[in-house]
From TrEMBL:
This is Cell division protein DivIB. Keywords: Cell cycle, Cell division, Cell membrane, Membrane, Transmembrane, Transmembrane helix. It is found in: Cell membrane; Membrane. The lineage of its organism: Bacteria, Bacillati, Bacillota, Bacilli, Lactobacillales. The gene is ftsQ. GO terms for biological process: FtsZ-dependent cytokinesis. Residues 259-282 have a biased composition (Polar residues). Cell division protein that may be involved in stabilizing or promoting the assembly of the division complex. It is a single-pass type II membrane protein. It comes from Streptococcus troglodytae.
Length: 282
């Protein structure tokens, strides 16, 4: 009796294997195990783990296959609901475990309010107020009133080198007749920088190159060009301008008085001449 071809054996084996896989998968799908999911979170520092899992929008009735093939939908849910989350990724581990890997937005600065300090993230978003005890040992404080300016400033700071941003202590607005968006940056090395908000991301990096040549308490002016001065020099200049203005006003007043006196004398002379002429005519 001839033996069956080897090819038939392989075909029969493949049918049995595929059928077994389908059977096991079917049994798994109708069992409670198909809905049992274990989710752990990694990468979060400020966001709460239980809240992140809830914000994914995963239901108890969702199958494991739903998470496998629709992971991007749940990741989008989380990013749209949680202010801290910059990136989210669901990673599957056999048999029913998932790891939610998140990357949070970086805190760029804080804004002080009556209720505490408000963290401002790198995308300009503000999150819940924290107490002074919750603040890091070193941070940047922003004292700007306009929300639009705060968001623009934070987004520009996020583009700068982190060490440069960390060297800033306080950022405030400056009154300037020529530059409406001029800022004053109080640095942690006791120097100060004046720079327009619109140009802070292009001009401020120069500070790292020149700070080693500055004397303590220097003021670096980047409003127009770049030069350094000190508070004493600026006070002396301001005093000189005030003195010059006062002297100019006094001189102008004296000139006016002199002109007035000369005019009076001229009028008196003309009057005397008129009287003399009138007498002669008589």
């Amino acid at each position: 009796m001839p033996k069956p071809p080897r090819k038939d054996y392989w075909q029969a084996a493949m049918v049995i294997i595929i059928s077994s896989i389908v059977l096991i998968a079917s049994l798994f799908m109708i069992s409670p195990l198909s809905r049992q999911k274990e989710i752990t979170v990694s990468g979060n520092k400020n966001a709460i783990e239980s809240q992140l899992i809830e914000e994914l929008g995963i239901k108890k009735s969702d199958y494991l296959t739903t998470l496998l093939f629709q992971a991007s939908r749940f990741e989008r849910n989380l990013k749209s609901k949680d202010k801290w989350v910059k990136e989210a990724k669901l990673v599957y581990h056999f048999p029913n475990q998932f790891t939610l890997r998140v990357k949070e937005y970086r805190i760029i600065a804080y804004r002080q309010t009556d209720k505490g300090y408000v963290p401002i993230l790198e995308n300009g978003t503000r999150v819940d107020t924290v107490n002074a005890s919750e603040l890091p040992g070193s941070f940047v404080t922003i004292n700007l009133d306009q929300e639009k300016e705060v968001r623009k400033l934070v987004q520009k700071l996020a583009k700068l080198d982190k060490s440069l941003v960390d060297s800033i202590k306080v950022i405030s607005s400056v009154d300037s007749s020529s530059t409406k968006d001029l800022l004053l940056l109080e640095m942690k090395d006791n120097n100060s920088v004046r720079v327009p908000l619109s140009e802070i991301d292009t001009k401020l990096p120069y500070y790292s190159k020149i700070k080693k040549n500055l004397t303590d308490g220097s003021i670096v002016d980047m409003e127009v060009g770049l030069y350094s001065t000190t508070a004493d020099i600026e006070a002396s200049i301001a005093k000189h301008k005030t003195t010059a203005t006062t002297e100019s006003s006094e001189n102008a007043s004296n000139d006016e008085n002199t002109d007035s006196t000369q005019a009076s004398e001229a009028n008196s002379q003309e009057g005397s001449q008129s009287v003399t002429q009138a007498t002669v005519s008589q």
